[in-house]
Structure formats: C-alpha cells, structure tokens
Amino acid sequence: MTVPKPPLRIPSQLLGFFGSAPVTSALTTTIVATIFFTHVIRSTIAWPGLVAILIGLTLCAALSLAARRDELNWQGVLPLTLLLLVGWSAASLTWSEYSRASLTSVLYQLAIAFLAVYVAVARDLIQIVRAFGDVLRVVLVLSLALEILSGLLIDTPISFLGILGNLAGGGPIQGIVGTRNMLGIVAVIAGITFAIELTTRSVPRGVAIGSLIVAGLAFLLTRSPVAAGAAVVVLIASAALIGIRRASAEHRPIIQLAIAAASVVGLFFAYALRARVVDSLNAGGEFEVRYALWQRIIGLTSINPLEGFGWIGTWRTDIAPYFAIDTLNGREPTSALNAFIDVWLQLGIVGLAIFIVFIGLALVRAWIVASNRRAVTHVWPALLLVLIVVTSAAESFALVEIGWFCLVICVVRAAQELSWRRGLRAV
C-alpha cells in the first residue's frame, strides 16, 4: 500500500520574503522595466533570454500573490471581457494552422497579462504611477543618450537596436524601443505619468518638470504622426476631464452627455475631413502605406471570417498567411498597423467583437472613475486608455508587450474601482 505524498508547501520564510513591501515594490519596478525594455533584451540576449526573465518574474509574482492572498481584495479583479478575450485567443489553438506558433504566442500573451494583473493588484495606483515614472525616465534618457552617441558622436547607426542615427538632421529618432512611432507613444505615456507625478507631488518638483521636458523633447524628435495625433486627442481628453472634475456633482451628467455628443460630432467631421487631417499631420505617404496594407488584410479575412487564422500576436513572416502579405516599402510588416484589423485577421469577427467590448467597457469605466473620484491619480488609467484606443487605429500597440501590459493594468484597475459583479454581491 502506497502512502500518499503530503501536499507541497511553500516555506513560510519564503512567503514572508516575497510578501514584504520592499520586495513587492522592487518586483513591480522590475516587471515594468522588463516590459519597456523588451526590445533591448531581445536585441542583446535574444528570445531565450527574454523568456527566461519573464518566467522568473512570473514565478516571483505568483509567490508574492500567494504570500498576500489574504490581504488582497479579489472581487471584480478579472473582468469577464478580459477572460473572454484571452480565452478566445487560447481557443484559437484548436483551429490554427500554425498551432505551435499560436501556443507560444498565447503563453507569451498570458505571461504579460499575469504580470500586469500582479502590478494592478499588488500596488496602489500612485505606486504604479511612480514605478512607471522611474522606468520611463530611464527609457527616455537612455534613448536620447544613445541617439546622441549614434547621430552626433560616432555618426553611425546602432543597427542591433534599430537606431538609425538621424539626430543630426533633427530626427526621426527611434530610441531603445525599436521604431519612432513606438518611442513617440512611449513619450506620450511618459508625459501623462510625469504630469500626474507633478500634480500629486510624488516626486520633487524639479524632477517632474525636468522629466516632462525630456518627454517633450523625445516626442518632438520622433516626428511621429501617429504619436502627434494621439497626443492631440489625449490633451483634449485631459481638458475635458479637468472640466468635469471641477464641475459640481449635479452638473457632471449634463457635461458628460455634452462631451459624448461632441465626441461623436468630432469623429464625424474627422472622417469627413480625413484627407486634410492626414495632410496636416504630414502623414500622407505613411497613411497610404497603411491603407494599402489594410485593404490586403481585409481581403484575407474572408477566408476565415468568424474565427480568424489563430492568435499570433506579432506576425511571423515564415508562416501563412503572413508571408503572403506584400512588403511595405521594402519592409516586411510585423503587424496590421491597426489593432482592430489585426484582431479581425487573427481571431475573426467573434474576437473583434470581444475586443471592442473589452476595450470600450474599460474606457467607460475608467472615464467614470476619473470623473467622480477625488484623487487625481484616477485620471492616469483613463488617459492611458484614451491613448491606447486612439493609437489602435494606426498601430497594433494594444495587442503586444508594452501596449498589452498597459491595457491590462488599466482594465483591472477600472474593474477594481467600478465592478458590476461587486455591485450585485452588495445587493
């Protein structure tokens, strides 16, 4: 007769270590830094090194959550739309013709989502903003330093990082995140974060102002039309939120309706005057390339309209149908340059519907919380979601790495603050 083995128990000393406040803070900052440095890590120690780091961080985060399981409030933490989207991505393994690639992509997506959930659950919002601020200062300063080295001092591209050395000509610069559009978007995220730090006085005033100047300089040098358009929308959203937050409680619903109506009218005129908008952003050539790519992809969606080809995240040009999509000005596309079209291609109409509900509901939740809660930190998730939604029309930013990480954090924070399931339990 065999004696059953006792269940595996984690030593209390180990749980105590991972559950401590200093370790939680350090782990949060390390996770945020890893996500923003994924391009650098891949470029230096390749995919195996990045995967090993993510596995280690996932294990550490799991131990930290286990140590703090009794003190954390789990009600409404994981929105059903997030579970549906991740679940549909995983389900696509059953019909994907590149199931092995889909499996690795789904696991990669899940790992980053888990780390984002950990950050959102384990830390207060102001602590998350501080972690982002500390990391983004390093990202931007290092990006500018390497651009100065490449463009002015040695006058040679740093090819393995994708830095072209264009600083002497006023840009565009790519920094350490791979492309000018990505650096421009990161600069906008940094601007939002540094502004919250300045408003909340969570860092010295001089540090916050200096950080904003660095973010603005990096933003201008990218010469990114995508980031420029997103920044305009974020500034308008910021002004709207300031007006709503300063209004009295009884006037806020009327102002919200007026803003919603103005947004619909603005979208209508933006579409009607889209040619002039594109020209004003100096994006004519880039938009034409994107539009041609979208037309090709939409033609492919008719092959598997409901379920899509299977989740892949960042495209792999050695598998169908991605190798069949024409190059863009001599470059092989690694995404659809539109999150919604990308989801449509990979997960079909069903996945697209889930994604639209997922990101739309999160934005509404975060906006309501930012409008009604006194703490100014609640503005941070709302503005990040505005940025993510806008950039999703011109980049697949929301689906992988930095964008997916930020999206999940904002979605989870919004669900924590405004969960309909928690409301049902209270009835």
TrEMBL record:
Compartment(s): Membrane
Annotated Gene Ontology cellular components are: membrane
**Family matches, as Pfam families:** Wzy_C (PF04932)
Q: For the O-antigen ligase-related domain, which residue ranges apply?
A: 212-356
> What is the membrane topology here?
Multi-pass membrane protein
This protein's source sits in the domain of life called: Bacteria
The record's listing under InterPro entries reads: O-antigen_ligase-rel_domated, WaaL-like
Keyword terms of this UniProt record: Ligase, Membrane, Transmembrane, Transmembrane helix
Q: Which residues cross the membrane?
A: 14-39, 45-65, 77-95, 107-126, 138-164, 176-196, 203-220, 226-242, 254-273, 343-368, 375-391, 397-415
Give this protein's Gene Ontology molecular function annotations. Answer: ligase activity
Q: Where is the signal peptide?
A: none
Question: Per its record, how is this protein called by name?
Answer: O-antigen ligase family protein
Question: Which species is the source of this protein?
Answer: Naasia lichenicola
